[in-house]
Write a structure and sequence with these properties.
The complex is a heterodimer. By secondary structure, chain A is α/β, with parallel strands linked by helices. Chain A is globular, with a radius of gyration of 20 Å. Chain A has helices at 10-15, 17-29, 55-70, 72-86, 96-99, 121-135, 148-160, 170-175, 177-185, 200-214, 231-254, 269-275, 304-307, 345-353, 363-377, 383-401, 421-427, 439-442; strands at residues 41-42, 45-46, 92-94, 106-111, 139-144, 163-169, 189-193, 218-220, 260-264, 285-293, 309-313, 316-320, 356-362, 408-413. In chain A, the strands form four sheets. In chain A, strands 3-4-14-9-10-13 form a six-stranded mixed sheet, with helices on both faces. Chain A has a four-stranded parallel sheet with strand order 7-6-5-8, sandwiched between helices. Chain A has a two-stranded antiparallel sheet with strand order 1-2. Chain A is built from 18 helices and 14 strands. In chain A, 45% of the residues lie in helices and 16% in strands. The longest helix of chain A has 24 residues, at 231-254. In chain A, a hairpin with a 2-residue loop joins strand 1 (41-42) and strand 2. Chain B is an alpha/beta fold. Chain B has a nine-stranded parallel sheet with strand order 5-4-3-2-1-9-8-7-6. In chain B, helix 9 links the parallel strand 7 and strand 8 (211-214). Chain B starts with 5 loop residues before the first helix and ends with a helix. The chains are: A alpha/beta, B alpha/beta.
Chain lengths: 447, 275
């Protein structure tokens, strides 16, 4: 395997000889930009490992999605919604007080937390929901872990008059009771999934079963860059706006490209969305931070690249937490949105190419960065995004140790932390009230 | 077709005898490996013509609640992928004339090593593999390994499959083509869709020599209806269900399993009389 060593000094990544080599090799071979890679395969990853019953729907989806991308009317409608409904472009905020803790580099946040519904998820959801209307389907189903994607899907379904059913692990419905209520307010049906580990993975299984049975009227509005082709490519397309905006904004503000782009990686949609605009710029180092949970050695984590191996789950071949029999292993993270045993195939491809570096960030490190951003900048991030912040602190400090300061680091702040207040309150022991036995069940911190 | 298929031979033989085959599914390792051998043996003795042995898997997206529950309990009881080869061997020595197919989701096979899985399955006397989440488009490694070891590869078709995909699947399959009777997951249904009969005809038209129908068949009456137009009737959940209730003594559950199997066997036996 020729992947970049995650422990390699950051200066090495920054000098980007590796990235130059990777890109040089690819240019020679195919002449295709990494950013324009099309499915079904990303190197040896991706594909379509699905029941035959779904193939016709996936083919229809791919055809319709490719047509839509070429259709000025579709693009205009999506752009209008992004502008007038989501509130794009999202700002780029420099955070100098936070940056003092990150080795004295310059840190900018791409503010996806300021989007309508509070995260980047809405970008993909609006794109797919418009496709659903074009395909003439009337019902959407979705999976959700923390509830961010479920809320975004319920929102788009309300806006576009679609029936909406959201599958959510029973454990997660308890931990995220408020988001369940939000989805129901928006008119969605929330189905608690009571089989398997009762978390995100099982919600996806149940959504796939629903889809097989109802595929004629129903679209599976998958929430990340995983799943069978064309989902990994299509969801990236709907999120590429994040990186395109960030690239333009940072060029305007600092007059050059950033040195480092950092994002958290669960399924990997926010990371791919921001990475994509920089994939073919070899001088930009790309860092994905996955959930290290209680530490990779503890076995309680969602670090697919440090603790997994290539395998097939939910329709795609990618890095996967699995045992020696190929059974899926349970993942763990303080952040429900990163708590998934596999990862988008494009990330596995970028990992093996050495174009992006993936490192685990523990629960403790993420929560410390969470607290730091609150205190220094008055921004409460999602715990998912706090993993990227913790990673940026590490990278910034490593740069300073290598004698570098004033390097430009862009962090994708993929979501806001309102949903995480209960978890944080418990984590930092912030509640004055006597210990409430139910608090532990509504927070997601004890996963 | 490169290799000769014992499953296809068995289906042809039964066709000459004037009836379709009864294909019975049970998962390996439920409720334990030893007990699953007893259950499959009992099912064979009660009239199943072809056995489909399921490998329990953590994420069985093509299965309904009954088989999900059995798989979950098998895994909790410690079932391992390699156990399937032991059970195949046991069945082959008990009933050498009964072809034994294994049904597995793809990741356990991938993890075992596709070539290694084919080798171990062939060595145990298995007839081949049914792959519910592997389509021929992704199956190059499995096609090569199954050719090398002379194994059947049973791919699925569904009512949503286009003519082009029916051809692709019929060409890639050996043994038979598994026609999913309805759009959905495994589980007993009160009615098997009319789509099934058309799908069988279309799959034959696309070049398949044998087409068996699964999903939803739960009793002899349905088996007779489906058997009238298919080369085989595949039953899973209706059999697994007889074994789930821990409150009932194991021997009594085996009795019920045999009663249900016998009813299904009587159904396929009269399938061509009713048509």
């Amino acid at each position: 395997m020729n992947s970049q060593n995650p422990d390699a000094p950051v200066s090495e990544a920054l000098s980007s000889t590796l990235a130059h080599q990777v890109l040089g090799r690819l240019d020679d071979a195919a002449g295709t930009r990494l950013a324009d890679q099309q499915g079904p395969y990303f190197g040896q990853f991706g594909g379509r490992f699905v029941p035959e019953a779904l193939v016709a729907a996936l083919d229809e989806l791919e055809t319709e999605y490719r047509k839509a991308l070429e259709d000025p009317q579709f693009r205009q409608e999506l752009a209008r919604l992004q502008r007038e409904y989501t509130g794009r472009p999202s700002p780029l905020t420099e955070v100098p007080r936070f940056a003092q803790h990150a080795g004295g580099q310059r840190v900018f946040l791409k503010r996806e937390d300021l989007n309508h519904t509070g995260s980047h998820k809405i970008n993909n959801v609006l794109g797919q929901a418009l496709l659903v209307k074009r395909m003439g389907k009337t019902r959407v189903i979705a999976e959700t872990g923390a509830g961010q994607h479920g809320v975004a899907t319920a929102t788009a379904a309300a806006l576009l008059d679609l029936e909406c059913v959201v599958y959510m692990g029973e454990e997660d419905t308890r931990r995220q009771a408020l988001n369940v209520a939000r989805m129901r307010l928006l008119g969605a049906t929330v189905v608690p999934v009571q089989i398997g580990s009762r978390t995100l993975k099982d919600a996806i299984n149940e959504a796939l079963r629903d889809w097989v049975a109802n595929v004629e009227t129903t679209h599976y509005l998958l929430g990340t860059v995983t799943g069978p082709h064309p989902f990994p490519e299509m969801v990236r397309e709907f999120h590429r706006v994040i990186g395109e905006e960030a690239r333009e904004q940072v060029l305007e503000r600092v007059g050059r490209l950033p040195d480092v782009v950092a994002a958290c990686v669960g399924g990997g949609s926010n990371a791919l969305g921001i990475f994509n605009a920089f994939l073919d710029d070899p001088d930009v180092a790309l860092y994905g931070f996955e959930a290290g949970g209680e530490g990779v050695d503890s076995g309680r984590h969602a670090a697919r690249f440090s603790g997994g191996a290539p395998g097939v789950l939910h329709g795609a071949r990618s890095y996967l937490l699995q045992d020696e029999d190929g059974q899926t292993l349970p993942s763990h993270s303080v952040s429900a949105g990163l708590d998934y045993p596999s990862v988008g195939p494009a990330h596995s491809w970028l990992h093996d190419l050495g174009r992006a570096t993936y490192r685990p960030v523990t629960d403790d490190e993420a929560m410390e960065a969470f607290r730091l951003l609150c205190r220094t900048e008055g921004i409460i991030p999602a715990i998912e995004s706090a993993h990227a912040l913790a990673g940026a602190i590490q990278v910034g400090r490593e740069l300073r140790e290598a004698g570098e300061t004033q390097k430009v680091i862009v962090v994708n702040l993929s979501g806001r932390g309102d949903k995480d207040v209960a978890t944080a309150a418990r984590w930092f022991d912030l509640l004055d009230a006597p210990a409430d036995d139910t608090a532990g069940e509504t927070a997601e911190g004890d996963r | 077709m490169i290799a000769t298929s014992s499953t296809a031979a068995r289906l042809s033989q039964l066709r000459d005898e004037g009836r379709p085959a009864l294909v019975g599914y049970l998962p390996v390792g439920f409720p334990s490996v030893e007990a699953s051998v007893e259950a499959v043996t009992a099912m064979v003795d009660a009239g199943v013509d072809v056995v489909e042995l399921g490998v329990p898997y953590t994420d069985p997206v093509m299965d309904g609640p009954v088989i999900q529950q059995a798989a979950e309990r098998a895994l909790a009881a410690g079932a391992r992928v390699a156990d399937v080869f032991r059970v195949v061997e046991a069945l082959r020595s008990h009933a050498p004339h009964v072809p034994v197919l294994v049904m597995s989701y793809w990741n356990p096979v991938l993890r075992h090593g596709v070539g290694m899985f084919a080798r171990d399955l062939a060595a145990a006397g298995g007839a081949g593999l049914i792959t519910p989440d592997l389509i021929p488009d992704e199956a190059a490694a499995w096609v090569a390994a199954s050719d090398e070891h002379g194994l059947d590869r049973v791919f699925l078709v569904a009512p949503s499959s286009t003519t082009e995909r029916l051809r692709l699947t019929a060409n890639a399959s050996r043994g038979f083509v598994y026609a999913a009777s309805t759009m959905g997951v495994t589980g007993a249904r009160s009615q098997v869709g009319a789509a099934a009969e058309r799908l069988v005809a279309d799959t034959r038209e696309a070049g398949a020599e044998h087409v068996c129908v699964g999903l939803g068949v739960s009793d002899g009456e349905q088996a007779a209806q489906v058997g009238a137009f298919a080369d085989g009737v595949i039953v899973g959940s209706a059999l697994v269900r007889t074994l789930l209730d821990d409150a009932v003594p194991w021997v009594a559950r085996l009795d019920t399993l045999q009663t249900v199997t016998a009813d299904l066997a009587a159904g396929v036996a009269r399938a061509h009389e009713e048509s």
